[in-house]
Task: inverse folding
């Protein structure tokens, strides 16, 4: 597989029009304008300490956004990430009170992975609609967590447990470093590996992908496993930051995760999107939230603006789709809608 077969937005052809640039990189332009506007209104926004605090605060959302991006590109949906996040935070904190942090974190990661695999089985094995499947799993996970813990908060009084969440090097939070590393790795896998091509292909046309030799069920199920693992990492980071966790930890987090993916431009119909787009989505939402706080804007208005942003982002995606002429290439790596020979040949051997 060569990099030429994985074409990113704006690299097709030698001539890039202004309209084409804005369709591909409009979210980056929007982020620059947003940062400029908030900086003018509140110059302290670009202070190094403030930016590092934003990075630390939004690391869990960004990491969960990675897994959600994979799921959405396959044409799926995962509403269980907040429940998995809370469960794994509780597991890490409960074990962290008496066990070494590494063991507590490892068990929490395993729990998240197992739940993600279960999600994948329900969606691909039992053929349940992803929305219903993950909503049901969310309710099950939340209920089980409450039954097992009695809705008790687990507090960890062990300093090494907090290193991942609060530790810094040169002022850069470890959680932020982890976010950056995971985004780079996930982005490279999605853009330049046969597995990443399979993710796009399944989201573009599942039946054509199956006929091309791609293991569609495995590809789809693995994206849910990855989403569960990312939710577990996010839960661990939050438990480490707070030195505690409880079953009802931020159940509304799923909306922030979906927002950063949608604002980034990943299509809810599948087959199109990128990790770098989710990273920009995180930056946009984090900039807005921090700017609102610095400008002392009421939280109720913040929710209204977030809702408007989601609607605008979805409307923009549909507008871009209508502008694309029939038969023109996607902005993501090519789907097998006619079945691509090079991609399918590579994936058949997996």
Result:
């Amino acid at each position: 597989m060569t990099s030429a077969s994985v074409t990113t937005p704006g690299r097709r052809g030698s001539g890039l029009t202004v309209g084409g640039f804005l369709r591909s990189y409009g979210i980056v332009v929007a982020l620059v304008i947003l940062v400029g506007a908030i900086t003018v209104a509140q110059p302290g926004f670009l202070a190094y300490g403030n930016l590092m605090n934003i990075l630390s605060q939004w690391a869990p959302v960004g990491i969960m956004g990675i897994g959600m991006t994979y799921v959405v590109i396959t044409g799926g949906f995962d509403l269980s990430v907040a429940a998995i996040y809370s469960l794994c935070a509780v597991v890490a904190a409960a074990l962290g009170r008496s066990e070494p942090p590494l063991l507590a974190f490892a068990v929490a990661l395993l729990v998240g992975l197992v739940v993600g695999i279960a999600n994948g089985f329900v969606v691909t094995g039992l053929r349940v609609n992803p929305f219903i499947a993950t909503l049901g799993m969310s309710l099950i996970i939340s209920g089980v967590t409450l039954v097992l813990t009695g809705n008790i908060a687990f507090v960890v009084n062990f300093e090494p447990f907090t290193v991942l969440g609060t530790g810094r090097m040169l002022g850069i939070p470890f959680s932020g470093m982890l976010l950056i590393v995971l985004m780079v790795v996930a982005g490279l896998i999605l853009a330049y590996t046969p597995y990443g091509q399979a993710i796009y292909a399944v989201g573009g046309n599942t039946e054509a992908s199956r006929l091309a030799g791609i293991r569609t069920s495995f590809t789809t199920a693995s994206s849910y496993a990855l989403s569960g693992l990312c939710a577990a990492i996010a839960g661990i980071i939050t438990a480490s930051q707070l030195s505690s966790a409880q079953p009802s930890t931020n159940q509304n987090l799923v909306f922030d995760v979906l927002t950063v993916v949608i604002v980034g431009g990943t299509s809810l119909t599948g087959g199109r999107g990128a990790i770098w787009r989710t990273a920009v989505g995180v930056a946009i939402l984090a900039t807005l939230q921090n700017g609102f706080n610095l400008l002392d804007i009421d939280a109720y208005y913040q929710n209204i603006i977030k809702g408007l942003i989601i609607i605008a982002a979805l409307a923009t995606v549909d507008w871009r789709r209508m502008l694309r002429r029939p038969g023109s290439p996607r902005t993501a790596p090519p789907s097998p809608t006619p079945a691509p020979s090079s991609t399918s040949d590579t994936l058949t051997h997996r």
